[in-house]
Design the sequence.
């Protein structure tokens, strides 16, 4: 059992519980984005570097998962330092073309198990959300802003191998598909919080009550 509480400044992302009998279909593609005009600036170093020839082709790689009427797209680009304005424009263009919504939460247990749950609430950028994930065996519940009913609810097999020694929040250990936004007041518990406790945590974090705590001393670790 794992419970993670995190207030997040979202950038995007799921709306209905996916019924288990629905099969998940997957599609993938890669688009060559290698610069045609050289030289180009190479990002990622302390000093500016330039490339005058192409050694390896650069690609934008996309994985699309579909379950019933719900679809999610994950895109990885072989470059760094893309401005936020460009990323937002690309997401808006992709949403208009494909109908894939970029504004809801999702729960995905990895590309080996390929089980997907999608949230109900449309999220906005540039604002914080209070998110609580409760995981008990195969049961998954994600609560948003202290609501008594979960925004995501369903079942998904655990994707983490037994005996794993690390927990990464906001990204993977290989820096793939990291969270785009900000996180604050991250907490991990070794017990299941009840909806009433989750609501009290949310109320304690509201403006005017900063520093108030609903913790009963059983919190395992905190980072902010």
Sequence:
């Amino acid at each position: 059992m794992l419970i993670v509480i995190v207030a997040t400044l979202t950038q995007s992302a799921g709306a209905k519980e996916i019924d288990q009998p629905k099969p998940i279909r997957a599609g993938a593609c890669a688009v060559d984005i290698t610069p045609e005009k050289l030289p180009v600036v190479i990002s990622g170093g302390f000093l500016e570097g330039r490339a005058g020839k192409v050694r390896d082709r650069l690609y934008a790689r996309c994985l699309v998962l579909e379950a019933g009427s719900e679809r999610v797209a994950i895109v990885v680009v072989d470059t760094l330092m893309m401005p936020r304005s460009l990323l937002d424009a690309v997401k808006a263009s992709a949403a208009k073309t494909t109908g894939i919504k970029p504004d809801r939460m999702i729960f995905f247990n990895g590309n080996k198990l390929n089980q997907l749950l999608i949230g109900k609430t449309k999220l906005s950028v540039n604002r914080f959300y209070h998110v609580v994930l409760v995981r008990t065996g195969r049961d998954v519940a994600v609560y948003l802003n202290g609501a008594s009913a979960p925004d995501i609810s369903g079942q998904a097999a655990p994707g983490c191998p037994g005996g794993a020694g690390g927990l990464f929040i906001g990204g993977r250990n290989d820096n793939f598909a990291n969270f785009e936004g900000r996180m604050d007041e991250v907490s991990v518990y070794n017990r299941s919080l009840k909806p009433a406790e989750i609501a009290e945590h949310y109320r304690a974090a509201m403006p005017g009550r900063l520093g108030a705590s609903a913790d009963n001393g059983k919190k395992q670790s905190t980072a902010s």
Q: What stands out?
A: Residues 84-98 form the longest helix (15 residues). Residues 2-20+105-223 form a domain with the Jelly Rolls fold (CATH 2.60.120).
